[in-house]
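Notes continue from the previous slide.

Worked example: a multi-chain complex. Inputs as given:
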Amino acid sequence: MRVRPTLIALALIAPASLLLALAVGSSDVTVSALWSLLRSEATPFERLVVLDLRLPRALAAFGTGALLALSGALLQVLLRNPLADPYVLGVSGGAAVGALLVMLLGLSGALVPPAAFVGALGSTLLVFGLAQAAGAWAPERLILTGVVIAAGWGALISLILSLSPDTDLPAMLYWLMGDVGQGATPWPALGMTLLVLVLALPLGRSLNILARGGLQAEVLGVSVRGLEWAVYLLASLATAVAVTTAGAIGFVGLVVPHMLRLLIGNDQRLLLPASALLGGSLLTLADTLARTVIAPEQLPVGVITAMLGVPVFLYLLYRSRA
Amino acid sequence: MALLEAHALQVAIPARPSLMPLSCVLEAGERWAILGPNGVGKTTLLHTLAGLRQPASGSVSLDGEALHGWRRRRLARRLALLFQEHPDPFPSTVLETALIGRHPYLRAWEPESAEDTRIARAALARVDLAGLEQRQIQTLSGGERRRLSLASVLTQQPALYLLDEPTNHLDLRHQVQMLSVLREEADAGACICMSLHDINIAVAFCTHVILLFPDGGTCAGPTDEMLETRVLERLYQQPLERIHRPGKPPVFLPLP
């Protein structure tokens, strides 16, 4: 356990990732220029690039990453499974179907985020309702229901893609791969991050005990049913807002809490804020990479997180077996 | 006043005919054993007594108050349950695991205090785990993990200990040690109620027994009146030999 060094490192990485995102790009802005920006001595061009283009995008990426990591950590407790992640339960699939339907029907692009949000929450309620309908809901039943519903969404997504005119396909694929993009508004994601932290942190010790099993938690005085509902709702809202902001981005929710658990243990009172910081920093860095690595072309950030996430996760898995 | 009272209690056992109604009164200072063959419903009975399951019929009350009227948090300060197994899906240290017993005493925001840590360390010392506080639970042996669970239960400081096969996985020395810790708790005014597979532990250690027969019959009473060879043979459907020891409790051995 390296609790203190890890927390200090996280507190440094988070602002550093944001600064880097502001400074790096097709036109590099030096740190001294960033500094003069703060004192409002910069050129109008620098102000435009940094404040109007890069800052909202960096903050949106940070909020999205924080939400994905938080919802991963919460769902892992809920399902008593360190391999759970926001997308296992079909949340992103539901969001994608909503977003792609809007594009297929040729409706206004402004409707894509709300449609994704409705799709994500709808899928959540569907999975929970089905898992609940069979009586007492066990974590295994919830996972299985989620996996099957996610497969169903996957089929619908393929159907929509095959029905869509060729001209719509690039936008649809970009959305599916996850992309923070230009003009993203950071406030829903940042606000939701704060809300989840404020609501989940007082439940931290109860969550620690819930992670040891539902019956164990009940015997120690936790009202399990209510807590599980709250966790499920918070994690779903967090995922829905994240997906709405930046499309379907994988692996952050899986890898970040897992990595931190190896470093600082499973105390949710530390793990949740640490996950938010690391998830936010990672996605900010990944997004910076996505828009610079083959500049002036941009990559979808979901591709970067997957390409980093797969080897990192395999490494962690291999190491924990050893 | 009785600590725990079961009145005409019938437990609902999934996919099995339910047991006959059981009535018993558990008082402070008593040590109870629940005996019966595999799958007869010992665990289900313990879970029902802990309020984790609704009885099929009849009632359970703690401190004279019906169990279903208790708030879980308040109940957790009076009653603890040692589970038969621990899934442990996440990493945790030995000390963190012992500290979970303090949960019902703490408010939502309240961190564990130095006093809570002291209670947890004392419990770890009583189960012979002192010095392992920072170890990861995944690295413990089965017997060490079992003793750690007992430490969590001791940290909870309940008036009623419900224990599901507490001596599982323990070597002989630690079995004896665990029983003497439980005896200390009972002497200090707690009530112990545990399911067991070892008749001889029940004979030597328990003041009372609850018997759950394979045909669904149930009965409860003081150990020396209940544990007759014929009754035990019917309980386990296994011929037994009773070995008399002057001045000591008898020993039962299974006959081949």
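Summary box: The CA atoms of residues 6 and 263 of chain A lie 7 Å apart. The domain at 3-321 of chain A is CATH 1.10.3470.10 (ABC transporter involved in vitamin B12 uptake, BtuC).
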